[in-house]
Structure formats: C-alpha cells, structure tokens
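PROTEIN DATA CARD
Card holder: Deacylase
Chain length: 155
Origin: Noviluteimonas caseinilytica
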Amino acid sequence: MLSPRLHNFLDQEHTPYTTLTHSRTVTADETAHATHLSRQLFAKTVMLKVDGALAMMVMPAAYRIDLVRLSRALGGPVVELAEETDFKDAFPDCETGAMPPFGHLYGMPVYVDSRLAGQPDIAFNAGTHTDAVRMPYAEFERLAKPELLWLAHVM
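Structure generated from the sequence above:
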C-alpha cells in the first residue's frame, strides 16, 4: 500500500504511475533486484541534515553520496547523514526508511543527483518496504521540484 500522502498527491495531480509490489526489502539494491529494475533506474532516498535541518538526497541505487561535494554545491553548510532517530517521526505515514522522495509532502527540500534526470523513468519506495512506484522522470521532476546536482559516485 502506498503512503497515503503520496497516493493522494499523485492522484490529485493526475500523474501516470505504476505500483510495484515486491517481497520485503530493506536496501535500495535489494528493492531494485526485487522489482527487476536496474540500479541506475531505482532511486534511493538518503536522509541528510543540512545545517541541522532534514533534507532528502535522491540518487540511483548504484551510487553513494559525497557529502563534501554536496556541501560545496549548497554553498558550504554542514551536511551529514541523518540517523533513523532524526527522521523516523518526520514520515508518520511511512515505514522507517521507505519514504518516497517527495520532500515537500513532509516539509523538507529534495536534492536529486542529475544522473536520474537522464533516465526516462524513475522508481522509488512508496512508503513501505514492499511497495514501489515507477513513473516518468519528467513527471517526478515536475511534482517534486528538486534541485538537480551532480554529486554521487559509483559504489
């Protein structure tokens, strides 16, 4: 089942999307495999603290975030990975770690690694560890209004 906020938002926006139900997974790599999608197409949402405020970084599952480059790209704030305890209450309609990459639904900015922008589609967790959404990347960008950055590197 999709996060109620995500489901309502996508339906209100008349966004074309497909729901992918899969076996329970925890990591983005596992989810990409379970949904039969490439690690370039499946997006993972990495939770950050930027000068203490929560933010999302969305990137292909095949990549790892570079916090130094992100800090430089954002003008020098302190950027660190958020702990689960920092963000678990920020997503009341989602399982911890399965939040969709629509930060504005939860009051936080979204940064996207621009490698995703080169993909025709994007897939991502939909609020549970057993559901994902696949949609045209252009629709995701229109709705999420992310800041595009070139930051991650291959794991």
